[in-house]
Automatic annotation (TrEMBL):
SMART domains: HECTc (SM00119)
Transmembrane intervals: none
Catalytically driven reaction(s): S-ubiquitinyl-[E2 ubiquitin-conjugating enzyme]-L-cysteine + [acceptor protein]-L-lysine = [E2 ubiquitin-conjugating enzyme]-L-cysteine + N(6)-ubiquitinyl-[acceptor protein]-L-lysine
Signal peptide: none
Protein name according to UniProt: HECT-type E3 ubiquitin transferase
Gene, per the UniProt record: HECTD2
Residue ranges annotated for the HECT domain, each copy included: 464-803
Amino acid sequence: MSLQSPPAAAAAADPPSPALPPGAELSRGGADPPAAAEDGEGEGEEEEEEEGEKETEREKLPPIQAASSAAAGGLERGAKNQFSTFSNFITTINQKKESTGSRSPPTQLVIPNIKNVRDLPPICLDVRQKQRISIDTLPQELKAPIPPEPSLPIRTKTVKDFQDDMEKAKSSGDWKAVHDFYSTSFDSFLEINAAFKKDANFPFNTIEDSGINAKFVNVVYDALLNTPQDVQKSVLKGIINGLLQEWKGPRTKDDLRAYCILLQNPQFSNTSTYVIYAHLLRQIAALTEADHHFLVHWSKKISQRRFKQLVDRLLQFISLRLFPAKPEEFPPMMKCTWWIPSATKVLALFNAANSLSNPPVISYTDFYNSTLDHIDLMEEYHNWQCYGNSHRFSFCQYPFIISIAAKKVIIQRDSEQQMISIARQSLVDKVSRRQKPDMNMLFLNVKVRRTHLVSDSLDELARKRADLKKKLKVTFVGEAGLDMGGLTKEWFLLLIRQIFHPDYGMFTYHKDSHCHWFSSFKCDNYSEFRLVGALMGLAVYNSITLDIRFPPCCYKKLLSPPIVPCDHNTLVGICDVALEDLVQIMPELAHGLSELLSYEGNVEEDFYSTFQVFQEEFGVIKSYNLKPNGDKIPVTNQNRKEYVQLYVDFLLNKSIYKQFAAFYYGFHSVCASYALLLLRPEEVEILVCGSPELDMSALQRSTQYEGYQKTDLTIRYFWDVVLGFSLDLQKKLLHFATGSDRVPVGGMADLNFKISKSETSTNWLPVAHTCFNQLCLPPYKNKKELKQKLIIGISNAEGFGLE
């Protein structure tokens, strides 16, 4: 999978006109990037005339707004008439080019068919591949021809020289030296490299070093917003010159450096510069995958603060194009359908750079664009399902930009549609057989006995496998009552508690990491692991948050692959694992293996180990070879890395393969959906278990009351105490009242938390009904008593009673 060029993404909406002169698309917002070059005889006089007219017309650039808000992170929005002036300016230039081009036919640059380039970093996902793709690097030695770099002008200005010029300009009011520097440095891609390249005579054509003098770039850009408007205008005029350059052949590394530098321009935070910014993004998006490869690796070297600024600027650009505060500020959407695809593809490069960094430069959640929560997500999803990564753009091609809340909406609606479809089919089958319809056929009805909870649940889910995608309703045999959500949650709570109990033997609880992991004990039937997987799937499907503690590695395996393979012989639940994954489960063992890797002595003589591991199973010690004849291969200083890797792979993949495969198939028997392709492992965990981020103030705002008013003294005492709790006590309170110390994806409001008045003695402790997220609170007389009783209750409660 690869980035697609903007022309493909927008072809259906705005086809290019073959009669347009080179560069004319820049003013009309067409689908094709400016990609023509002049090549002919007898053009010297015309060029001189054209250059003279260009200089005259460029003076018509609109004034740039003063940078009064620089400290706030960007310029203020410009006046709406600035765009008409800019468009006229570009149109005039293009007309001059047309007159020149009419006598000298341009040579069109053919953008390579990016989809056919092999070994590309997969920036987006394709539903047709039926598997999750991780971001990989291209080979370091690319077999692409490297065009010769043109010789650069000699520029000797240093950071100190520039800072001295700025100080003199501020004190004297004479900005000529600063103006000359900016106008010269940004006049062309060649000049940008002359000013900001570390060494003009060194090629810097590797991914390890971009050759950019980052300190100088940062100082120049930090000062730019504090310069007069004519200085800022000169920078934009230079950028326009660079973007109007007509290219012959592939881009050089100097061109890529210029793109990398221009992307960091803080002027692009101002909406009045968005037309220029859009064309910069289009040219970058249309680069070859080999060029993208360099930009991705160079971007990793940008500082965290500036990297986030770049990402935020792109997200703001997308948001304001989708929902402009002043629509008249921008060209009509039909004329610039390529704006959003281009910006999203450039954002994908930064996401790739972030994913390749260890640790990531910024959190993956910093790429979320919450504005997308307000568009028709299901239309985006259906377009993606129907067209995949073809010429039709969809945000689902770039799932990193879609927030977890938006993804939850997609999954829920997709689930509801599947539920309705299956229920409708059941109804049609019933009617076609001339049988009386029964409303129960529209639900997954689970009837269990409390005394045989696991076995009954296993039997019910196995027998009603075809109904798993219907709405769940639970009945406890011998108990009256309708399931309005409380019985379903109680069933989940009881079942999870029983299955994950250490005595049950299915999972091992590791105290050091506070998480469960699959028992490696062999058995004849792994159906109970399938039941746990189905439970997790049902929880996601029915929007139930489970109190499960699996390590992140589990969710990575659960998406390996995210779509169940058609070939049942294909291995599932196997993913690349490393020592970092083992740390999250067995930190002590991981520490020991890490010590082995860093041991400076003779590993073979001092450790006397072989490629063999031992495990105790039901009191019997069993040995397993990590590789053929592993018991005869000693671990040495030379092969210890291989030993550690094989050991970790054995613990997290091979030794529990059958258990996890059953768990995998159970989960996907309920959640089989292309929507899973949109999810990261961390996001699956949040959907299953909720988010660990607590906001008790938000809980206070959304809490409902029964028998109390929010102004009552007891309630005011309660919130004074809770908001003053430590995070650990707040989690205990949430766990006490809801059965989980995590928050649903929709936030605290989705908990439907209720505080009821308990007409009991104030000597009693608070009581919770976890099935309904309800806290019963006696009317304590003072804050001290309430705090004391509440802490005792939440700190000593376990399950349905005190320890």
